[in-house]
Specification:
Layout (H helix, E strand, L loop, with lengths): L4 H21 L11 H17 L1 H16 L1 H10 L4 H15 L8 H18 L7 H4 L6 H8 L2 E2 L2 E2 L8 H6 L4 H30 L5 H21 L5 H24 L18 H15 L1 H5 L3 H6 L1 H19 L1
Antiparallel strand pairs: 1-2
Helix pairs in contact: 1-2, 1-6, 2-12, 4-5, 6-12, 10-11, 10-12
Length: 331
């Protein structure tokens, strides 16, 4: 059976190292505003450590998304060509991706690589029970004193090892108030859902919806499916894990904003909301608006031709009465 102990050791080492660093700096060990900030900061900087390690993967993710964007016109051509033949369409598209060295799944890779970190932290924080024997407290490189300190660590009086769905026995072991734990955990779950939605929405707004049905399905899953699933699964997450998730989302929002500003996506004609789609519209406005205004005075300038036509009329008026006078007299 595959063992995940190496993940638990790695997560514990990073967490304990950051806690020791904040402790050495002088962050209060005791709670301030009902919060043990040294442990909260240790979780926050666990996120920073993991994201710095995964930054090259994030860059590859952006490059892959750019490559997928560049292929959208060809993907659309294949969809028109093989409309109604889904099997052939999928084969042609996979061949196109292989030829152009584009990977549709690269967009999800950073998230998949963080799953082991999430599972490791989930396991480590779930074990924080002050009633455990000393042998169990020293697993994964923890000292008994560190384990006891983490077991009593709180955020606004709610223990970081507690969760929304904690049983009465679990709350009693953590010396926690059930209502407080539910309120803090519930607020954090809602923030987790909101920031998860915003990270996906931010990327889709900048890059647009994919033409490829497979890619579009993945985008919809990321935008709606994952945040909604957190409403249920968030009840079993320890508060410390939710803090990790929220911090990770905030980090992602900032990182994506920086990357998308520094390396904006190339404009793709025909995509709703893309800057390039305004190109065909602007000439239409110029020809219909500006040229229309200039064209209106043009017929007015041709008005001098009217006097040429009207010229004989003034001359004809004096002639007609003379010729008409005798005619009337004769009649």
């Amino acid at each position: 059976m595959f063992s995940l102990d190496w993940i638990y050791y790695a997560i514990s080492w990073i967490l304990l190292t950051w806690h020791s660093a904040w402790d050495a700096i002088g962050v209060p060990v005791n709670s301030v505003i009902g919060t043990n900030w040294s442990w909260i900061l240790a979780i926050v900087f666990l996120v920073v450590t993991v994201r710095v390690i995964l930054f090259p993967v994030f860059v590859k993710q952006i490059k892959s998304q750019r490559a997928m964007q560049a292929l959208q016109p060809k993907v659309k051509e294949l969809q028109e060509k093989h409309k109604g033949d889904r099997e052939t369409l999928q084969k042609e598209m996979m061949e196109l991706y292989r030829k152009e060295k584009a990977n549709p799944l690269m967009g999800c890779l950073p998230m998949f690589l963080q799953i082991p970190v999430f599972l490791g932290l989930f396991h480590v924080l779930r074990r924080l029970d002050p009633g455990k024997s000393e042998n169990n407290k020293t697993l994964y490189g923890w000292a008994v004193e560190q384990f006891n300190s983490a077991s009593s660590a709180k955020i606004f009086t709610a223990p970081i090892a507690g969760k929304f769905g904690s049983t009465a026995d679990e709350l009693a072991a953590l010396n926690a108030n059930g209502t407080t734990v539910k309120v803090i955990a519930g607020i954090l779950v809602l923030i987790m859902m909101g920031t998860t939605y915003l990270t996906s929405r931010q990327m889709i707004l900048k890059t647009g919806w994919a033409e490829d049905p497979q890619q579009k399905m993945i985008q919809r899953l990321m935008l709606y499916g994952i945040p909604l699933s957190l409403l249920v699964s968030g009840a079993i997450f320890p508060i410390g894990v939710i803090i990790y998730w929220v911090t990770n989302n905030m980090f992602t929002l900032g990182q994506q904003q920086w990357v998308l500003r520094k390396y904006p996506p190339p404009p793709t004609p025909g995509r709703p909301g893309a800057p390039a789609s305004r190109g065909p519209v602007q000439p239409a406005k110029k020809t219909g608006g500006l040229l229309g205004r200039k064209a209106a005075p043009a017929p007015v300038k041709q008005a001098p031709s009217a006097p040429k036509v009207a010229g004989p009329k003034p001359g004809a008026k004096p002639a007609n009465p003379k010729k008409g006078g005798p005619a009337k007299r004769q009649g």
